[in-house]
Amino acid sequence: MVDGKEGRLRRRPKWLEAAALSLAALVAFFLVRGCAFMPWNRSGPESEVRVTVTRDFGTVVLKDELVRLERGGSAMDALREAAEVETTYGGGFIQGVDGLRSRYDSALGGGEKVDWFFYVNGHLADVGAGSYEAGEGDWLIFDYHRWDYSAFTPFLAGCLTQALNRGYGGAVPAKVAVLHAPGAAAQAEEVAGLLRANGSACETLLLEESWTPRAGEYAVLVGIWKELANNAYLREALSNASRLGLFAYVEGGAVRLVGPGGEVAKTLGENAGVLEATGPRLGDGRSAFLVCGLDEAGLDAAVEALRRVLAEQCRPVAVLVAVAGEEPLAVPGEVK
Prior knowledge:
Number of domains: 2
Largest sheet: 7 strands, mixed
CATH class of the largest domain: Alpha Beta
Order of helices and strands: HEEHEEEEEEEEHEHEEHHEEEEEHEE
CATH topology of the largest domain: Chitobiase, domain 2
CATH architecture of the largest domain: 2-Layer Sandwich
Distance between the termini: 92 Å
Radius of gyration: 27 Å
Structural class: alpha+beta
Strand order of the largest sheet: 12-11-13-18-17-19-20
Number of helices: 7
Helix content: 10-25%
Number of strands: 20
């Protein structure tokens, strides 16, 4: 720049020149690459997940939607796409969904024990919905139910197909063990065939008395209860039904069905079968799925109920009880 009075060249301050150069570089960056970082120019959704909002252990479906998420999106993000969500404790605890709110005040230790629980592909999650990164094809279930009988229902029987094909946290089982009682080899082969038709690699093995599920193992146990009961793990599991969140168990030669509040609401005898899962931990695949009958007719009814679960869009219910010649009953939600 030339000064009119002195006729001398007047230079800009060095700081101003540096600022101009920085601004020019920044503009050039955004022209070449930076626009990709703007919210309206981000890449499209990376994954699709299914969000199902239910109550009473999956018996009543309130909402069922497919949601698109950007890579790294959480289960909480997916729920917010499908419903209005209220949270507490810094956003880590679901207080309400679409106006259906927790009835228990943990600070005061009072109220009804009714809250929201979060499942991934049928597994009760070991982290909050905000901390779980949703993956392509995940089935995210948010269920509103009572927990005065048990706060721990580790697996939803109605989600068996999804559990075997998607696993938990991206850990998909390479092979499913179909373990059978001595007299149930034929039913085990039928179950294995159903699972193979749904995309699971299976092997059938005789259930040993000492067998117990290992971390990462997915097993389906097939047989009449009096023969399955030779296995110590199963005997112990069904004798601790409330601790493991089991709403159907065998006692004294009968199937006891537990209602939502923990009361034995119904007892079934001959021709009764059960589809249910046990699991001592959360999200590690250590689940044993029972296809069990009190007798041959009950076992056949349980296998038929499993066929329907695999072939149809089943509700994400906790337990299915089958009686020969009758429609399967969702437990505990449909127990009267």
